[in-house]
Amino acid sequence: MRQKPQLGFWQIWNMCFGFLGIQFGFALQNANVSRIFQTLGADIDDLPILWVAAPLTGLIVQPIVGYFSDRTWNRLGRRRPYFLGGAIVASLALLVMPNSPHHWYAAGMLWIMDASINISMEPFRAFVGDNLPKKQRTLGFAMQSFFIGIGAIVASALPWMMANWFDVSNTAAAGQIPDTVKWSFYMGGAVFLLAVSWTVFSSREYSPEEIAAFEAAEEEGGSTDDPEKRGLTNYNKGAAGWIIAGAVLCAWIIAQGLDKQLYILGIGAIVFGLIQVITGQMQSRGNTDNGLYHIVDDLFHMPRVMKQLAIVQLFSWFALFSMWIYTTAAVTSYHFGSTDVTSPAYNEGANWVGVLFASYNGFAALAALFIPLLARRLGCRMSHLVNLCIGGLSLISFLLIKDPAWLILPMIGIGIAWASILSLPYALLSDVLPTAKMGVYMGIFNFFIVIPQLIAASVLGLLLREFFSGQGIYGLVIGGVMMILAGLTTLLVDKEAEPDLAH
Questions:
Q1: Using CA atoms, how far apart are residues 386 and 378, in angstroms rounded to an integer?
Q2: What mean pLDDT comes out for the span 417-445?
Q3: Mean pLDDT of 216-239
Q4: Which of 39, 80, 238, 394 could form a disulfide with 410 if both were Cys (CB 3.0 to 4.6 A apart)?
Q5: Has residue 45 got a pLDDT over 80?
Q6: From CA 239, how far away is CA 275, in angstroms rounded?
């Protein structure tokens, strides 16, 4: 039977190049959205709830895009139509975002921008699984990490470069976004579309028939621990448990007068319960030929390794979300001594955050070159453990470093962790997934990127206010602890999940 051929370096380069543009958009978002919110009048306690649009959008969009991309085949291919469509909308959103008149308008634009970025991004992971044989997938995911790093270096540092190299104004009147941020977003929109278009028009995809033949040749069953269909009784029991838990949590929030952000968790539990009710009814009536049923059914039949990696992802992405939300607030107040968004000190600190984010992405790009070598020596599991612990300690060190210039040093460790998060879990996962369902399972896997971000958006503001006097620096400390826990949970992943990296 026909084996999937190995691809050359430049073929892998072309199929991963679009991630440069995607990360250009994400990096601008991560480094500047909190700054935009604060500039438009948002209080630091409101930052998590304003950010909730991003992970919530991913939770909804990614499995849907994965499901439909598994079933798409047209003149552009299987995954590429989603690359291009998402890029067009994301580029337009990047042009509008820095012109938002109010922080709630900006939150709405974040929703649109993140939805379109996710439409482009989600199929890229499946793209590697589709096009590369097992032995090359770690290299493919590492190449994506490289382009993520390169794109984010420039994007994160753009406001600083605009101010220091091109003398663009870095301050503005109260309620106005500085020109450095505006022009950075305009450039980001152009780069996003051009980079993704390069991959769309320079790469090819295998047809569904070829994919099926490759899967048969590789004997890739992607079997799950429970191949039997989940019964109506199980769906109803699960639904009742989630609905009751969500209702109890909402009642407790009301009774205690707790933060409104916590409603996200309670309502989310109720919604998941209701989805199970609907799915169970679909099954009982034989109405199973639809996306909702397949996504939910596949969720409950994840491979064992995928469930284990989900725990790792939960802690990892809680840490990252903490960093993205609070780095600007932490550095401007703790290291630059200003909370006044119109002051030169605040804007200098905010630009320095962009440089720091550029730095960790640059270090991530370098780390991505060595991660396949490290994984070949230590295995993916132990490599990920080491990398995450280094990243966690680096985040915690923000509390100990007083001179902002020295904050470059922990960016090395954060970059190593970031490159690892973007590659090694996917390398461990891709070998256990059936190729025919690669898209939907990658989308479901991203639940465990999104859910911790929703949890972080719900509880971080409360934790900081109640225990740390609202100081953003402790958001980074919490993130560091979570990243170390993520590393330790890597030990829970089956050794058998290790891919064969021998050439």
A1: 10
A2: 82
A3: 67
A4: 394
A5: no
A6: 8
The torsion defined by the Cα of 409, 412, 418 and 423, in degrees rounded to 10, comes to -170
Residue percentage of the chain with pLDDT more than 70 = 94
CB 379 within 8 A of CB 497: no
CATH number at 478 reads 1.20.1250.20
0.90 exceeded by the pTM? no
Question: Which of 127, 177, 49 lies closest to 443 in space, CA to CA?
Answer: 127
C-alpha dist (Å) from residue 63 to 75, 84, 122, 315, 435? 23, 18, 8, 21, 15
Give me the number of domains the chain comprises: 2
* 177 phi and psi angles, rounded to 5 deg: -80, 130
Residue count (the chain)? 503
Under 8 Å between Cβ of 72 and 366: no
Residues 429 and 329 in one domain: yes
pLDDT tens, residue by residue, 96-137: 999 998 888 888 888 888 889 888 887 887 887 788 887 787
Q: Is there a single domain that holds both residue 324 and residue 265?
A: no
116-122-124 Cα angle (round to 5)? 115
- Is the residue at 3 inside a domain? no
Q: Find out whether 296 and 496 touch, Cβ atoms under 8 Å.
A: no
| pLDDT attached to residue 53 | 66
DSSP class of 6: P
Same domain as 104, residue 54:
yes
Same domain, 157 and 260: no
- Could you tell me the residue range of the domain that residue 454 belongs to? 9-225+301-497
Domain boundary among 296, 317, 344: 296
Q: What is the DSSP track for 92-125?
A: HHHHHGGG-SSHHHHHHHHHHHHHHHHHHHHHHH
Residues with Cβ within 8 Å of residue 142, at least 6 apart in sequence: 368, 369, 371, 372, 419, 423
**Rounded-to-integer distance, Cα 461 and Cα 473, Å:** 12
